[in-house]
Amino acid sequence: SVSHSQITRLYSRFTSLDKGENGTLSREDFQRIPELAINPLGDRIINAFFPEGEDQVNFRGFMRTLAHFRPIEDNEKNKDQNGPEPLNSRSNKLHFAFRLYDLDKDDKISRDELLQVLRMMVGVNISDEQLGSIADRTIQEADQDGDSAISFAEFVKVLEKVDVEQKMSIRFLH
Amino acid sequence: EDKGEDESKEEDNGSQQNRASRRKNYQRKNRDGKKAREEGSQKKDRGKTAPTKDQKESENKEKKTTKRGKEGENKQKKDRKNSTSSASSNSSDEESLSEEELAMLKEQVEQKKKLISTMRNKPWRMVKKLSVLREAQDFVEKFEGALGKGKGKKLYAYKMMMAKKWVKFKRDFENFKTQCIPWEMKIKEVESHFGSSVASYFIFLRWMYGVNLVLFGLIFGLVIIPEVLMGMPYGSMPRKTVPRAEQATAMDFSVLWDFEGYIKYSALFYGYYNNQRTIGWLKYRLPMAYFMVGISVFGYSLMVVIRSMARNANESTADGDDDNFIFSWKMFTSWDYLIGNPETADNKFASITTSFKESIVDEQESNKDENIHLRRFLRVLANVLIICCLCGSGYLIYFVVKRSQTFSKMQNVGWYERNEVEIVMSLLGMFCPPLFETIAALENYHPRIGLKWQLGRIFALFLGNLYTFLLALMDDVNEKLAEEDVVKNITHWTLLGHHNSSAGNDSTVTPPPLDPADVPRGPCWETTVGIEFVRLTVSDILVTYITILVGDFIRACFVRFVNYCWCWDLEAGFPSYAEFDISGNVLGLIFNQGMIWMGSFYAPGLVGINVLRLLTSMYFQCWAVMSSNVPHERVFKASKSNNFYMGLLLLILFLSLLPVAYTIMSLPPSFDCGPFSGKKRMYDVIQETIELDFPLFVAKIFSYVANPGLIIPAILLMVLAIYYLNAVSEAYQRANAELKKKMQMQREEEKNKRNNKASTNPMLQDLEDLLTPSTKTESPPKQTEDKKIESPNGTSPVRKPGRGEVLDGSPMAGGRGAAFIPPSPVFVTQPRTLGVRAPYPGQPRPWGHPLGPVPGRGRGQPCY
């Protein structure tokens, strides 16, 4: 679902990132992208590019992950839910985001995981106690089944009104 | 009927499905990227082998799960690679397939067209009809062109291209627009470090700058520039010439600094203007223009303030709801993935931190629960204290003003006596605000509300300032008016004497005109008032800037650098860094604007000075705040609408309108200076214009309209209209609140339902039941009991009898009577125990459904 020109553009980007010139990217290559180096969740996003246990990614894998970030175009929006889901669909975007927070892959965002993210985002400017209360508050808001963790369904519910299509889009290519 | 609807829905789904896959293929056909081809053919395969909906769904599920699995595991990825390669090997028969697809697409278009033509006969609801119709039309429009050969296709391609270009253009334009908003980046930077409350001051400053620019344009474009271009030049007449006695020092800096000398006799002040009815070859009616501009300055300001107040009010009601997930949203969506610049990233970090802090403050405030009586007592006490302070300072001002009036009549008064009023005023202004702040600590309001109180109180104090100033000015004016009468006679006699003397010498020769610098002239109270306002404004600017420089910058430098060699920690200890004083700055801005409004009639150049001031203070204060201030201890979020600032501004506007209107309506203009000289009252210029420049009947109409018999009923009518509209808006507000409550309850209900669905395990349910009273202390255990008793009734998920019916036990409630209940709107599906179960609509966590069968999903769509 990515157009030809987009692929060529991406490919040139891929090769320019590929300092080792072996057709694959390593983590260090990704770290060199300023957007990712700055992002508090940058490491996790980079991890999302790498399949489990590998530290190289080829162009195909690169593309597959990036496809999550492709903006949803107008003509795709009203496609019905049952169709084969493209990678950049809303739910896939959400799932991608969810996995960024869910470190231990138990399909739940726990309090500790939230705290980690919070520390990355606000650093030392807010006391630990307050961070804890923020995390508690977040879970309290989102939690619906009372297991004091946020499941994917709850995550989706929380972000129901947020324009994820916009937030998780990178305007690469046009 | 229902059934038919369902069927059609299914059909629709099916067709949409096909359409989606068709479209995919079409897109694929247009492209020639290898990857796209692979994916497309894959999708096509899926689409083809899906004749019925059920099959398809199951298949999709399968696909989804496999896909999810693949993403994690490596081995399966290879599988997928294989499959994709096989798909690409299949691409040889792609052509024929796409032909087939094309035919199907054509068929689809035909079908849609048919649907459009037969839409009228379908037994659907209007809403559905409309939406289906729109969809079908879109579809036909989109693909009809694509199907056609040659021209149609080209047109279609062209259309698509243009659409894309248009989207891009729109995005660029949006970016451009944001860039065009002046100082947007600066303000955002301040906001990210200091929170929205400080930013709200800068936004207010920017808004003020915009308003002043318009005023500047009005006054300069319609009064000053025409006068400079077409009016009589400097030195041509007495009012445009520096008097002989002052000429020696007229260019000295100290004189110019006091706005005397050449500045006083320039187009910046009222006195310079001539009372000639028309000037220049354009026959520009300058006095008329002067008067109209003076009025329209007020008119425009009033309009703009009220309009922006109304807009703010609209905005604040527009997106006020949905604060269920504040923290979650902040947590999950605050980072902007497009940030690539380290500096921006720093700002973003700061702004995330600030916004978290703001939410914490809000949260603490809403969770506060303590002795309410003590709190009330303290608040009353604080208000009493502050009223005492205000009364005291009011009396002090009054007393000092009275004393100064007696002093002014005496000779040989000392420096202190002469400047007593100013000294007292500035002392009050220095010590009262901190005092108020200390007292306000008793009240322990949320800082946002505290700021409003603080603003209001200082405002009241400053009004005293204004009052003394105006009083002094009025005295001055009265004095000048008395003096003027004397001078008028002298001038008259001088001119006469000059004529006589020259006539006596030689009657045949016309007398040499008296040099304009030598003509004795009146005091011209209008210019005096104008100069007074200009001086006040300039000194205010200087004081503000010096305060910022000394109080913020030098202090910050001291704290920062002397800290290395000092006994205690300066940064954390006593002096520390200054906080940005929002209330003081806002009030300073507002009062300054009041001065401008009052003064601009008598000193048209004042607005120019103000524009410069606002412009420089934007940069200066932004720099100062970023370089030498620290964020507030409790960063708080500004209210969405800064209508409070606007309200104060409106009040000041009204207050400053009064003296100007009074002078225009009831004081005679000076006889030898200004555009209205020679008239009895300034507004006579309108009558004159109407009489001389308009046909007779206009004058007649005007005189009728000005009749009190017409004006009083008009005012009455307006009052009645205001009353009526007010009543209507109140009713709307009530309805709005009601609806909001309903929506919230409904949401709560949905939550409950889903909760029940989730916990199907009876063991878990029991556990939850046990936990409920302990986790939610607000819910008395009695309610849970009630629930248990009533719950067996509430089994039917969709058509429940309404709550009221059960409560009064009418015969309609059971049996066949239920059939009379109209098709239920969504909120009927809520259980009858609603009132008991959810006493607090805002409660974040629902309780588990206690016992009995699990209710179904209701009519809502499954959410996941």
TrEMBL record, chain A:
<keyword id="KW-0449">Lipoprotein</keyword>
<keyword id="KW-0653">Protein transport</keyword>
<feature type="domain" description="EF-hand">
    <location>
        <begin position="89"/>
        <end position="124"/>
    </location>
</feature>
<keyword id="KW-0519">Myristate</keyword>
<dbReference type="GO" id="GO:0005509">
    <property type="term" value="F:calcium ion binding"/>
</dbReference>
<feature type="domain" description="EF-hand">
    <location>
        <begin position="5"/>
        <end position="40"/>
    </location>
</feature>
<keyword id="KW-1003">Cell membrane</keyword>
<dbReference type="GO" id="GO:0005634">
    <property type="term" value="C:nucleus"/>
</dbReference>
<dbReference type="GO" id="GO:0005737">
    <property type="term" value="C:cytoplasm"/>
</dbReference>
<dbReference type="InterPro" id="IPR018247">
    <property type="entry name" value="EF_Hand_1_Ca_BS"/>
</dbReference>
<keyword id="KW-0677">Repeat</keyword>
<dbReference type="InterPro" id="IPR002048">
    <property type="entry name" value="EF_hand_dom"/>
</dbReference>
<keyword id="KW-0539">Nucleus</keyword>
<feature type="domain" description="EF-hand">
    <location>
        <begin position="130"/>
        <end position="165"/>
    </location>
</feature>
<dbReference type="GO" id="GO:0005886">
    <property type="term" value="C:plasma membrane"/>
</dbReference>
<dbReference type="InterPro" id="IPR011992">
    <property type="entry name" value="EF-hand-dom_pair"/>
</dbReference>
<dbReference type="Pfam" id="PF13499">
    <property type="entry name" value="EF-hand_7"/>
</dbReference>
<keyword id="KW-0963">Cytoplasm</keyword>
<keyword id="KW-0597">Phosphoprotein</keyword>
<keyword id="KW-0472">Membrane</keyword>
<keyword id="KW-0106">Calcium</keyword>
<dbReference type="InterPro" id="IPR051875">
    <property type="entry name" value="Calcineurin_B_homologous"/>
</dbReference>
Automatic annotation (TrEMBL), chain B:
<dbReference type="GO" id="GO:0005245">
    <property type="term" value="F:voltage-gated calcium channel activity"/>
</dbReference>
<dbReference type="GO" id="GO:0008381">
    <property type="term" value="F:mechanosensitive monoatomic ion channel activity"/>
</dbReference>
<feature type="domain" description="TMC">
    <location>
        <begin position="524"/>
        <end position="639"/>
    </location>
</feature>
<feature type="transmembrane region" description="Helical">
    <location>
        <begin position="421"/>
        <end position="442"/>
    </location>
</feature>
<feature type="transmembrane region" description="Helical">
    <location>
        <begin position="454"/>
        <end position="474"/>
    </location>
</feature>
<feature type="region of interest" description="Disordered">
    <location>
        <begin position="743"/>
        <end position="864"/>
    </location>
</feature>
<feature type="transmembrane region" description="Helical">
    <location>
        <begin position="207"/>
        <end position="229"/>
    </location>
</feature>
<feature type="transmembrane region" description="Helical">
    <location>
        <begin position="380"/>
        <end position="401"/>
    </location>
</feature>
<dbReference type="GO" id="GO:0060005">
    <property type="term" value="P:vestibular reflex"/>
</dbReference>
<feature type="transmembrane region" description="Helical">
    <location>
        <begin position="288"/>
        <end position="306"/>
    </location>
</feature>
<dbReference type="GO" id="GO:0050910">
    <property type="term" value="P:detection of mechanical stimulus involved in sensory perception of sound"/>
</dbReference>
<feature type="transmembrane region" description="Helical">
    <location>
        <begin position="601"/>
        <end position="623"/>
    </location>
</feature>
<keyword id="KW-0812">Transmembrane</keyword>
<feature type="transmembrane region" description="Helical">
    <location>
        <begin position="644"/>
        <end position="665"/>
    </location>
</feature>
<dbReference type="InterPro" id="IPR038900">
    <property type="entry name" value="TMC"/>
</dbReference>
<feature type="compositionally biased region" description="Basic and acidic residues">
    <location>
        <begin position="743"/>
        <end position="753"/>
    </location>
</feature>
<keyword id="KW-0472">Membrane</keyword>
<comment type="similarity">
    <text>Belongs to the TMC family.</text>
</comment>
<dbReference type="Pfam" id="PF07810">
    <property type="entry name" value="TMC"/>
</dbReference>
<feature type="region of interest" description="Disordered">
    <location>
        <begin position="1"/>
        <end position="100"/>
    </location>
</feature>
<feature type="compositionally biased region" description="Polar residues">
    <location>
        <begin position="772"/>
        <end position="782"/>
    </location>
</feature>
<keyword id="KW-1133">Transmembrane helix</keyword>
